[in-house]
Amino acid sequence: MDENSSFIATNDVGPIKTNVFGEKFFYNLNRDSFGKISSQALFEAKFGNTLFQSNSLNIIIGTDSGLLPLYLQQKGLPNGSRYIFIEPESVLEQLINHQLLEELDPAIVCVTLDEWEESAKLFKIQDYFYINSVRSFNSLCAEDDNYNAYAELSWHITEMLAQGHWHYNVSLGNEAFTIRQLANLADNILPAKLLTNAFQGKTAVLLAGGPSLDEALPWVQKHRQQLIIFAVSRISRQLKNINLEPDFIFSVDPTELSFDISKEMLTFSDRPIFIYSYHTVPTLVSQWRGTGLYLGSQVPWKSTLNQANFDGVGPTVTNTALSVAHKFGFNRIILAGVDLCFTRDGYTHAAGSDEHIAGPRFNLTSLQTETNGDFMAPTSCDLVAAINTLAIQAKAITATGCQIINPSANAAKVDNVTYMPLADIQLDDNPIDVTAIVAKQIAASSHRSYNDPVIIGELKRAQFQINAILRLAKDALTINESMYSAQGAIENYKDKRKLDKIEKKLNRDHRQYSKLVKRFGIRNFIKITKPFTDEDWSAEEAKEMGNAYYEAYRDGAIALLKLISDAIERAQSRHEETRDEPDFSQLFGQWRKDRSFGRAGLWRQNHPHANIPESVQTEFNELEDLFTSILSNKNTGHMAQAKNHASFPMLKKRSGLLFKHQKTQELKDLLSGLHKHQDQTAAVPYVYLLNGYLAELQNDTETAITAYHNIIDSEDSPLLQEALLRIASISINTNNVDNTNAYLSLQCLSQINPVYLPFYAEIVRLRGDAFAAIDVYNHYISQFPEDTLGQIKLATLYMENKIYDAAELMFDYILTKTPDSKAAIDLKKQLTYLKTLN
C-alpha cells in the first residue's frame, strides 16, 4: 500500500511529454498548452515585456514545468532584477528529479512556500518594496491549475505581498508626517502626557467603527454615567445621531480623507477632549473648539520644544487610543466596534458610516480571521497587521494588571483580549466627573502660552540651517555637472575634492538638519539606490547618480523651507488671534489659506465682547457659512471611495475570482450582501450571475444555464459576455462538437469582442468547416496584426488542410517580423517536409 501510494505521489504531475519543439513538460501541469505552440510563443503572447523590467523583484507562481525560468534566462535578464518562482513542494521535487531546473542564473530561484520568505530576504525584498518594484505573476500552469494546488498558493502570496506593500508604504510615511507636524505646530500646545495615571482604577469603553458598534451603542447609552468613553473620530456622525458625546476623541491619520470621515466631531461641544497624533490632518486640529492633547513631538528635529510625551503607536487609531487609555491609568478597557474584520456579507463598518451607506464591500480578498464566535470572517491586510499588533500590545498591557475586553462574538479573536458579552460586564455605580479630573491635571502643569516666541525662534534657527544646506546642494550640483568631460569621464579631480568638502560640511556642520532633509525626502534618496547593481557604473551613470543625490538634497531643502515659512506665518497668526482688536486681514488670509474656516467662529466664541466692524462682520459670516457648507457636504472624496468598493464592477471581478477558485461559501456570502445593496434594480443581473456560479459549483448545469439565459434576455445587460462565456464553457465540457449552445455563444462573443474570434474559429473548425474557420482567423488577424500566436494557428490550420502555399506565405510573414521565432521556424520545416510528400 505504501509503495503504491509513493508511486502515485511521484506521478501526480503526470508523465513527461516532449513537444515538437523539443521542450519537456509535465502533462498534468500544462496539459496541451505546449502541444502545438512553443513555450516561447506562448510566454511572449502572455507576458510581453512585463517580466523584463530592470530593478524589479518578480514573484512568479509556478514555473510551467521549468520552461518559464529557462525562457527568461535565454532572453537575457535585465539589470538589477531578480526572480523568485514558487512551486508546491511535490512539484518542485519532481522538477529537480527530472533535471528541469538545471544551471539557472543566480538571479533566479525556485522554492516552496515555506522557503520563499528566506529567498525574498536574500533578494532584498525590502529594498524593492521601497522603490515600489515588487510584482507578482501567475504562470500558465498556475492560471489553469490543473494540478489543484496553485490557486490557494497564488491567493496566499498575493495577500502576503499586499501586506508587505502596505507595511513599507507606512514606514516611508515620514514626508507626509513632517508636513502635518509643521502645519500643526502652532496648535500643539498640551502634551497628552499631562493626564498620566489620571484615571487609575477606572473603566473606559473604546468605541471604534467596526460593524459590532451597532450592538454596543445601546448598552453604552444605558451606562453612560458609569463609563468614560473613548471614541475614534470616524464614528462622530453615529454618536451625533444618538446625542452621545464621548469624553475623549482620537485621530491619527494625516490624509484629507480623514477629515471627510471625521468632520462631524467639529460639531461637538467643547466638553470632549481631542487626543491626536502630531501628524493628524490639520483641518481637524485647527478647527477643534475644545481642549486638545497632542501625541509625539512638536518639531521633527532635536529641540527643547519636544517635551516628554506619549508616542502615537499604531498602526490604527484604535491601537493608539488603547495605549493612551492604559497610560491614563484605566484598569479595565472595553473594546466596542473593534472588530478587525468584516461581516460575512461584506459590511466593513457600522451603520451610519459612509462605508455602510455605500453598501457591502465587493472587493474583499480571500483573507479571513477567526472570531470570538468561533467562525471565520473576512478581513484585510491592514487589519491583519492590526490584529497582530493588538495582540502584542494587549500582552504588555494585561501584564500590568489591566483587563482588556471585547464583548462582540463577531469581532476577531485576539490573544490577550478577553471575550465577555455585554450582559456579563459589571460596572461601578458611582458616576465619574471627567471634566474635573482633566481640569485638575492641566491646571497643575506648566505649559507655554500662545504668545511664546520660542516657537518662532526655533523655526527661524531651522530655517537658517536648511538655507545653508540648500546653498551647498546647489554648489554641489554645479560642480558635479562640470566635473565630467563630454565623453563622461572625470576631467577635474579638484572638483571631486570640492564635492568631498561639501559632503563633510553636510555631515558635520549641518548634521542634524541634513538628516532631517534626508528623512523628509527619503523617497527621492531611495531612487538613487538599487537593490542590486549587476554591472559597473559608467562615468556618465556616476554623474547622473551624483546629480540625483544633490537634487534630492536641494528639492528636500526647498520643500522644508516652504513648510517652515508657512509654520512661522501660522504661529504669528495664532498670536494675533489672542488680541481683541487683531489684524483681521492677517487672520482671514491665514484661515483661507489653511481652509480652517471654522476658526472664524472660534475667534468670535473666544472674544464675545470684541467690537467687530461691519465690513469685517460680513467676512466672518462668509467664512462661517463656508465651514457649515463643508460640514454638511455628504458627497465627499471618502464617500466616492466607499461607493467604489461597493461598485458592481468590483462585484463582477470578485465573484469571478471566487468562482474560479470554487469558493462556494464566500459566493453565498457575496450573494447575501448583494441582496442588501441599495440599488436592487441594477443588482438583478448580478444576482443571476451569482446564482449561475453557485449552480455550476453544485453541478446543476441546467439551473446555471437558465440563470445565464436570464442575463442574456435582460436588456442592455452589463454581464452579457460573462453569461455567454459560461454557457459556452458548460456546453464545450459536454464534449459535443455539434453543441449549438457553444457555437451560438462563441459566435455572439466574437461579435461583441474580437478577442473571442480565435475561440469561435476553433469551434467552427471542430464542427468540420475548416474554410469558415480560416475566414474567422483572417478576420481576427486583420484586427490584431501583431498577434503572432494567432498567425501561427492560422498557418497550422492551412497546413492541416493542405493549403501549403498560404501556410508558407504566413510563415514567411511571421519570420519577417520575428526571425527568431522558434515555433515558426520549426513549423516551416514541417511544412517543407509535408510538401515533399505530395
From TrEMBL:
UniProt cross-references to InterPro entries, sorted A to Z: MptE-like, TPR-like_helical_dom_sf
Domain called 6-hydroxymethylpterin diphosphokinase MptE-like: residue spans: 180-344
Protein name, as recorded: 6-hydroxymethylpterin diphosphokinase MptE-like domain-containing protein
Organism of derivation: Methylobacter tundripaludum (strain ATCC BAA-1195 / DSM 17260 / SV96)
A Pfam family: MptE-like
